[in-house]
Amino acid sequence: MGKSAFIHLVEESVQQTISLKEVHDLLNYYQEITSKTGEQLDWSYNSHAFPYLVTEKNDDNGNYLHLRGTDPNYQHLLVGVGSTKGSTDDQEQFFIQITLPEASTHGDKNKGNELAKFFAKKLEGKLHLFNDRIMYYYKRKLS
């Protein structure tokens, strides 16, 4: 597949910067709330809601999280953070990038969309999905 989704932290977001550790903490929180959902349903929902093992990688591309699938329907996702200079000012704009490597499955794409929406909602950011559509999770000003 080889596509990426981006969650941009904008001025109206809950926070303007993010680190890889904070993203890892959000993934842990996601696993925690999905396991509680499973407890309420009396079903091991956690293994279906988050079918990945998370490891931190460091290579020529920088630091990122590698989510390796634990189910045949899921292969892997890559999650990283970065920043760019704003177009109108010199302020850095931080983002989370979720990448579908070439060997990713449709299950990975669906889970990547789900995680991207979760991050964007928690951080009140601007989400650019894998299909180039944009979703706004922050309070926008009416002009």
TrEMBL record:
Record's protein name? DUF1885 family protein
Q: So which domain of life are we looking at?
A: Bacteria
InterPro entries on file: DUF1885, Rbstp2229-like_sf
Signal sequence region: none
Supply the source organism for this entry: Thalassobacillus devorans
What Pfam families does the entry give?
DUF1885
